[in-house]
Write a structure and sequence with these properties.
Blueprint (H helix, E strand, L loop, with lengths): L1 H46 L5 H5 L12 H32 L4 H13 L4 H15 L6 H26 L2 H9 L4 H29 L3 H5 L20 H9 L4 H35 L5
Amino acid sequence: MKSTLGTDMLLVRKRQKEKAFLVLATLAFLFSLIVLFTLIIDAFLDGLPRLNLKFLTSFPSRKPEEAGILPAMVGSIYVTVLTVLFAIPLGVGSAVYLEVYAPRNRLSAAIEASIATLGGVPSIIYGMLGLELFARVLQLGRSLLTGALTLALLVLPIVIVSTRESLRAVPQSLWEAALALGATRWQALKDQILPVAFPGILTGIILTVSRAIGEAAPLIMIGALTYVAFLPRGVLSPFTTLPIQIFNWVSRPQKAFHANAAAGIIVLLAITLSLNALSIVLRNRLEKRTPRTL
């Protein structure tokens, strides 16, 4: 009788702890949403009156009412596209090798641990690496190419980890069936495994785009310009990006520049959400076309 009563008390205590944890988690979630929406609403209230076609198509100016965001917007798009072109093939190829072809030994374990560690390194460290390696050693200067290569190093661990997780999510039976029918490992990978894993890989690409387009610290470290009155003419041209332009306007004392910064935040949000929405639509279409596995 006593043992039954003690067991019931333990169950009651566990349920109380679960309810308390659920309440705390819900409050933390609601608090985060409130802070996020407060910041977004504040940015929209300050920036919407300044947001117009002239603002999107004009160059920066020392007069806030004449300043525009065109070079920063074009620079962000260029840097993001170049970053994806560098990071995705290298990251996906590295993940495929580590997951499918690499022998299971201490070297592979060390490489995997290093990749996991690099994912948590502050972005300013990548900026220092890009400054020394690309800007100085390779003498690429403060160019679009330097910025894209630096950001590619920054997002590379994200691509590798997400691709490996996508490959691991493919049922082992699909591998075994393809190999049993006489396919080589490469044929099984190319024709069966990668098509099934590609929606998950595309999710990693979405995270890559979101991370790359919002970074400012590495680009400031490599010497990206805060005032650019021209459009990039090539991959070796000086450049600026939306986060850097926003940082420049926020650091100025005039309130009119702060309104420009709020409008720039709205533009950055719109570009990021548009790219993410496009990637999500592509991923959903690929998931529908992908054959279901048992």
